Amino acid sequence: MATVELKDVRKTYGGRVEAVKGISIDIPDGAMCVLVGPSGCGKSTLLRMIAGLEEITSGTVSIGDKVVNTLGPAERDIAMVFQNYALYPHMKVYDNMAYGLRNRGMDKDEIDRRVRDAAGTLGLAELLERRPRELSGGQRQRVAMGRAIVRSPKAFLFDEPLSNLDAKLRGQMRIEIKNLQRSLGVTSVYVTHDQVEAMTLADTLVVMNQGLAEQVDTPIAIYERPASIFVAGFIGSPAMNLLAAEGGETGKGLKLAAGGTVKPRETSLPEAGRKVLLGVRPEHLTLVSARNNADIEMKVTAVEALGADTLAHGYPVDGDARAGELIARLPGTVRVADGDVLPLAIDAGMAHLFDAGSGKRI
Amino acid sequence: MAEAATQQSTAAALGRREQGAMLGISRRSRYIAHAILIVGVFIVAFPIYYTFVASTHSLQTILRPPLPLLPGEHFFDNYYEALFGGVGRIGGVGVGTLLFNTTVMALGIAIGKIVISVLSAFAIVFFRFPGRMFFFWVIFITLMLPVEVRILPTYKVMVDLGLIDSYTGLILPLMASATATLLFRQFFMTIPGELVEAARVDGAGPWRFFKDILMPLSKTNLAALFVIMFIYGWTQYLWPLLVTNSNDMNTIVIALRKMISFADADTEWHLVMVTSVFAILPPILVVLFMQRWFVKGLVETEK
Ligand SMILES: Nc1ncnc2c1ncn2[C@@H]1O[C@H](COP(=O)(O)OP(=O)(O)OP(=O)(O)O)[C@@H](O)[C@H]1O
Ligand SMILES: [Mg+2]
Asked: ipTM of the assembly?
């Protein structure tokens, strides 16, 4: 068990492709750090640099206060769970788990004890004599986990370990991984592009974009105060609505491009005429009875009735369909049809302001 | 739900089979298919059977056609003479020696080729070193230089090294194999990168990886290649002919050739036939013995 520290870590492939452009993260002992971001943003590259599978172009990676830049993966004392499990196809489950221990010259009885322990924890005791191809996807996933935990490494590294499972199993395994990681107290880095996984698993969440960390914080803090429109759009489902607006005269709040004014709670309102984006989560748009109480009117183009909620998709009436999509999460009891015009109030206290140019939070 | 899915796919499979039956895999065409196969087997097997029949008759019977279709009563005489009497034509070397020579050569070539090509493919696929692609292309180009093309320079080298009439001389020049190297390269490249990385994380160095993971995964390929290369080695003609002068270094194929003289009457056909049977037998045994692996290696890849 150990802390994992990244200091200005960079990776350039072949002198041209900059995959990771300087990331610094401190992961405390026993914490779970989740790297999330769109495809190609450099999550796997960063993880593989921590693992020692990829050379570090510059910066330092330390595990347990020791710089490990030049060490190979085996010497870093980490364990990795791969997306496609990477089980040895010709070895039985038992040998798959024992292989890493044997290579370290561990005593036979100790190996046996550890493998049986891990198999017990993961519910694999019955399957030790099987080969990977005789297992279901979920069971293979468990074996991959088992191979990691028998080693009692300093850190676990996961690269989208659940992406090959169906939705139900994924939910189940997510909770299991969380509990396992908690009870073992092993520092972990977990890569995913699934934001539900990211929100539920993380102690520290890192939102990555094009090789940079856009925001590093707890999941709730990121949800409540996204640092940029990228983070705002990426975390939360459905994505946050971003409405074009500009600063109004002093004390009058914001002028929405779609018409109307809003007065968000944010301390400093932008100066008059400054272009901004007002971020409103779909759940912070509420249906009001009268048109003149509404901050914005929405023309509905599609309705998803999910039971508990109804998601209404559409666009601001005064804009046109290209002006930007608008999504409102309404109570399931509300009946909405395509083509309706809904008067909506913006929960100004829950709105976010971003600079239209830089995309940064104001 | 899973059950329903299985049922559905079973139903689909059944449907397909019925359709297959309807679409002309009828009784009649099945008979025709069998007839063709039987003819094929007959064409392949009959000459072998006839060779065996001839090897059990006396020279006189063979020289007075037609040759009977059933084995005669000289089985023990002929085989005893061939094995222990020494065959007159080729300087008193028994079939046993010939078989031994050929086995050494065929095994040497097969094993040597496999060892060399597995190792070079391993280096080319899993290591990054300067000139990697250069070496790959050099190996590739040797495809265009089979023994027959480079036979004179190779012969000169063997003479200079004093390797005429030695097993090394028989085996060494035939051992390098671009074909096998390329085959293994293709196979190794299908091994997922994650598996290699998992092994690295598990603390397996290159040799451990080679021994514990790569070789077990290549088992079927190794077996298939062994069969092919063994037969290749067993049936070599031109090179052994050149590089062996002494009769007791002959391979069985060369000996067969030497036993046949142009005047029919000088040739001891009954012994030629016995030798032929011995020449065919080991390849057949190797194929039969390794058949299961061989077919597996050609058809499926276990990953
Ligand atoms: N070996 C390589 N050579 C050159 N470029 C590479 C290499 N590996 C990755 N890249 C590039 O680096 C960038 C980051 O890749 P990476 O695999 O880290 O993305 P990712 O965030 O894991 O994406 P995904 O969610 O799709 O797995 C990509 O633009 C990719 O094209
Ligand atoms: Mg990735």
From this structure: 0.85
